[in-house]
């Protein structure tokens, strides 16, 4: 068996995430979010992820979270902020990716933070819309991370081309866990807040909340994945 290459401070490039340059936040993005919340919680057909099935993504998800007119509000904002003419949404969901415009619900006992990047083959930018009106904690939004080596040295936070994901980079063949990462920026979970970010930055849901016996208590969010059209 081949010995994995050791991780070094320069294994990943480093780019300090800057608001308005690498990530964007828009509060109160939807003019009428409560019908969206109700519609999403009341969906009847779900695809189950971890821990119920051996998937890289946690909880449960369902497609068509936003209606076309609601999605247009989100995408118009994104295009204006990142300065592109058009966005091409991710196609069919694939392994490890919660599909574009899918609602995802995850309870507190179902998952922990899992720093990762989104495949560059599928998207240049990703987004998340927090939809719980009364979250149990604000510390359940999205965090950005940088590599932390065993000696405490901090490394980078960007998946460089030509790699499409961290697992392709020498040193990450066996995967990674939360102990290998240092949280650098936390974006709190706020109802009706849209967060958009460059998908090559190492990131994760900060945490999850809610109980198995009560769906409405769990962390709920809509996720988006786009390629840009200049």
In short:
The protein is mostly beta strands and 230 residues long.
Strands, count: 11
- Let me know the largest β-sheet: 8 strands, antiparallel
Estimated helix fraction = 10-25%
- Average of pLDDT: 92
What's the level 1 CATH class?
A: Mainly Beta
Helix-strand sequence: EHEEHEEEEEEEE
Number of helices: 2
The assigned CATH architecture is: Sandwich
Please tell me what the overall shape is.
globular
Give the CA-CA distance, first to last residue. 45 Å
The fold-level CATH name is Jelly Rolls
Tally of separate domains: 1
The secondary-structure class comes to mainly beta
Q: Segments where pLDDT lies below 50 for 5+ residues?
A: none
Structure description:
- There is one protein chain.
- The protein is mostly beta strands and 230 residues long.
- The chain is 10% helix and 25% strand.
- The protein has 2 helices and 11 strands.
- The chain has helices spanning 34-41, 68-82, and strands at residues 23-27, 47-48, 60-62, 86-89, 102-106, 125-130, 142-147, 181-187, 193-198, 203-205, 219-229.
- The strands form 2 sheets. Strands 1, 2, 3, 4, 5, 6, 9 and 11 form an 8-stranded antiparallel beta sheet that branches. The protein has a 3-stranded antiparallel beta sheet with strand order 8-7-10, with no helix packed on it.
- The protein is globular, with a radius of gyration of 17 Å.
């Amino acid at each position: 068996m081949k010995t994995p290459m050791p991780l070094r401070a320069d294994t990943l490039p480093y780019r300090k995430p800057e608001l308005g340059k690498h990530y964007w936040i828009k509060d109160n993005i939807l003019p009428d979010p409560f019908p969206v919340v109700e519609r999403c919680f009341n969906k009847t057909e779900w695809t189950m992820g971890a821990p119920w099935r051996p998937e890289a993504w946690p909880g449960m998800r369902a497609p068509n979270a936003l209606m076309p007119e609601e999605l247009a509000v989100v995408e118009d904002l994104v295009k204006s902020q990142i300065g592109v003419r058009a966005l091409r949404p991710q196609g069919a969901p694939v392994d490890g990716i919660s599909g574009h415009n899918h609602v995802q619900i995850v309870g507190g006992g179902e998952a922990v933070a899992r720093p990762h990047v989104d495949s560059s083959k599928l998207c240049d930018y990703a987004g998340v819309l927090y939809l719980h009106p009364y979250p149990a904690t604000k510390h359940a939004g999205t965090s950005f991370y940088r590599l932390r080596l065993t000696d405490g040295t901090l490394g980078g936070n960007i998946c460089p081309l030509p790699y499409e994901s961290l697992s392709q980079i020498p040193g990450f063949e066996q995967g990674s866990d939360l102990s290998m990462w240092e949280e650098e920026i936390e974006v709190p979970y706020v109802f009706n807040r849209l967060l958009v970010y460059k998908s090559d930055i190492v990131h994760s849901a900060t945490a999850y909340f809610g109980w198995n016996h009560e769906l409405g208590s769990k962390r709920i969010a809509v996720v988006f994945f786009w390629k840009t059209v200049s």
